[in-house]
Amino acid sequence: MQSKPVIVITGASSGIGYAAVQACLEAGYRVIATARQHADLDRLQALGVEAVQLELDSERSVTEAAESIRLLSGGTIFGLFNNAGYGLQVAMEDASWEALSGQMNTNVIGPVVLTNLLLDCLHRGSKLVFNSSVLGLIVVPFRGPYCMSKHALEAAGDAYRLELETRGVAVHIIEPGPIEAQFRANALDAMDACLQGKATRLDYQRHVQRLQAATPGAGAMPAAAVADVLVDILQGRKTRARYRITRIAKVAALAKRILGAGFDRLARNNEPVRENQRSGRARS
Q1: Which residues are tagged catalytic?
Q2: Potential cystine with 267: which of 140, 174, 275, 277 (Cβ 3.0-4.6 Å)?
């Protein structure tokens, strides 16, 4: 009996990654999924997934995970979905060396190194997919480090597309807008860790309120919307280089293209930047 094609999905503990696992299993694929925490690995295994521990901020973890994936897959991977990541949502001036390093390692360097370690498992007809963001195309206040990482991931994906063409590996980038997931809660945790006890010039009140909101706001779509696009890419129904998900992502990308530098006005109006009433007030 012919074995099922192997799909590797990173960051599968919740949100888009978990939805992608479910969609790929329903589509008949064999799934190898990664997560950081052992409880999440156990939950994935209960679904019938082969789960691998992965911390993208650690070179050792990336190397060990790649070796485990190579062994589990038998050296042949049909689809690699680089989904794992998080958002460091602070003003650029408040981003520390440690926080920036963690953001870039997790969102860019880790996925690139993992891809390189698995590259000889991808053959003609395989799909390499990166989960970026509409913030890989536009920039808004208090998201600078995250935008920076996603802009870099967009460049990495484009470079892979050009360089893997002769191998017959298709490279795609998914650019979601607001998605119903744990992203905002994780972003709030990352922001608190970066700003704890730090004197900040800027007023984060509105930004924090948005991250703490019970719902992601108008225009958000379920994580399954991204998973459905992934399955369509894997099955050859979608062949374009990029897919924007949610109306907000499509409109924002179009506005940026049309307005150019004039897009800054929209970004400022969406979330006005104000200074603290007392300059240098620390965020607790």
Answers
A1: 146
A2: 140
